[in-house]
Each structure stands twice: as structure tokens, then as C-alpha cells.
Amino acid sequence: MVIFVAKENGDRRVAVTPEAAKKYVDSGGSVVIESGAGEEAGYSDSSYEAAGAVVSTEKGVAGADIVISINPLDEKMVKQLSKGTIVISTQEPHANPNNIKLFLKHGITTFALEFIPRTTRAQYMDILSSQACLAGYKAVIEAAHYFDRGLPLLITSAGTIPAAKILVVGAGVAGLQAIATARRLGAIVSAFDVRADAKEQVESLGAKFVDVNSSEATNGVYATEMSEVYKRAQEDKLREVLPGQDIVITTAQIPGKKAPIVIKSDMVKLMKHGSIIIDLASKTGGNCECTVQGQITDINGVKVMAFDNILNLIAADASRLFSKNVSAFLDLLLQEMKNCNSDIAAISNDIIKETLLTYDGVPVSSRLQMSE
Length: 372
Description:
Number of helices: 11
CATH topology of the largest domain: Rossmann fold
Helix content: 25-40%
Structural class: alpha/beta
Largest sheet: 8 strands, mixed
Strand order of the largest sheet: 3-2-1-4-5-6-16-17
Oligomer: single chain
Order of helices and strands: EHEHEEHEHEHEEEHEHEHEHEEEHHEE
């Protein structure tokens, strides 16, 4: 079994750390990693060689049985894959339809890690949760860096400095970690989420839950699209709350859809001069109407910040967690393949079935809607 790890394009993270590479090698596999793939995450080529991996200066993936990547492969690399190769990565099929067509044309087996189910058994493979946790943490650290005041209450001989007020929009994994981090830094934190059952989680972390005056609410792991009536009530509540906030961190996303606009441009203008909005949903359109992906936009003295990839700022730990997630997934996959004589289509495990997109030239996931 030859595992190939490519250098990510525009991403400082790496899908396999030296620790994971050693595990694969000790299990009888071969790991080939593109030279420099781990450099920006703090993992040198020599550390991979010490783990038993082969560092390659070639750009090709010829001869690989399994290709592991964080981001979807570029089309050039996909065209180099051989029939039967297994690709394990995020796939974003709706954003990369040409990749899917090439996978089908060349008989490539593909797994989409973003579709790992949010179940207890799959927790240790859940890349979305591990990466979102770090994103929520880093968002608060970056907000504190750019904010021109301190976060905690400070009582000094020269006077008292009040604690900063932080609003977190969206109480999923990223939002809850942002709340916890902001609280540890001494800020006064409040949070909003469309899911009613998020209130208990928010309050357990010492934050205040912002209630919208509406009988409509949802429950479950993911947020869903809300009615126009609810959206108007939500806007009214945010217009009331935003003027008193120093920092706003938005994390609201709907799987498979554009991120909902929660903060409109006129609402930004209600905020105090010097306040900050960090939009963690910018990659899927953003929660703020003023968000520009990869840029800091100044709106009447309010900074609207959208990092191109905030995980690049914490690449070593992000790589470590991603690598552990993938290692757990691959362990499960190989065990299931062994039980089914390598017939992946016959695997009944729900984690494998949920993530499998294509197999032997056939689309096997209901998530794929191929167009002619």
C-alpha cells in the first residue's frame, strides 16, 4: 500500500504529520510525501524521512494506492490518478463538478471527509469539528490582537478599564470554542443561535444567550434555513444588541448552502468606532454583508475581517488534528475492506457509506447530482 501526500495549494496545513507517517510505515505501508509539504506547518522533510517516509521532489502521484489531502485535488493531479486509486480528502463536489466527472471517468474511488456523520462513533474522525474548534479559538486570539483595547476588566491605580463585550453568532463547535476562549480572556460574552437547544450550552460556558422574540426555533446538530418572519425578528434583535458590542465573531453556516447573511451593512454602521467583526463563514459567502474574503474592510471605523484561511495561522495544530482524524478513518476503512474482500461497495458501515462518493466509475452518493 503506497500512500501519497501532496503539498496543499495555498494552505499551510499538511494532511499527514510525521507521527502519522510513522504509524503507516510501521503497519507495513509506504508513505511518499511531496517535498516541502509539511514545511509551513513546522514539519521538515527530514522529520518525515526519520519517520520512514520517502520525500519526493516529483509532482506526480503515479503508483499511489491512496492519496490523502486536506483540500480537493486540482484537476491536473486528478488526471494523473490510476484506476482504483483511493482519494481521501474534502471533496466539495458541488464546487468541483469537474473533479467528480474525472473521478468517474478514470474509475477513482473517492471519500469526502466533510460528510463524516456527526455521531458519537465518528467523533474521532470528524475533521469539521476538529478544524472548527481551532478556528473558533484563533478567531478570538486574532480579535484580541487587532482590538485596540484589553479584553478583561482591569482595576488599576489610574482607574478601571471595563471588560470588552463580545458577541458570538452561531453556537456550533467554532462558536462554543470562541465563547470559551473569550471567557477565559476575561471578556463579557453573549451568543446567538437559531437552535433553541444551544441556549443551555452557551449558558454552561458562562455566556448570555441572546433570545429572539419568536416562537420559531430549530434543534439538532446543524442550523437550517429560517423563515422570513424569523429573520426579521432576528434582525430587530441584533440591531438592538450590536451597538453595545466591541467584537463580533460570526460562525453561522448551513451545510451545502451559502452562509446566511446575519449582519447587514446598515447594522455594521450601528457599531462603535474601533469595534471588530471576524467572519468565519467568509469562505461560503459570509455572515456579514460587508465581508470580502481574504480582506479587512473598514466600514465607518468598524473592521470587518475575513481571513482567507484562519487555520493557516495555527497550521501545526490544525495539521496534527486533521492527521489524527484521517488516520482513524483510514484504519476503519482498511478494516472494513478486509472484511469485505476489498469490495468497498459492499461495506455497510454508516461512516464509510456516508463519505463514499464514487467507486469503480459509478457515483454512489445521493449527494452527487451530475449534470450533462
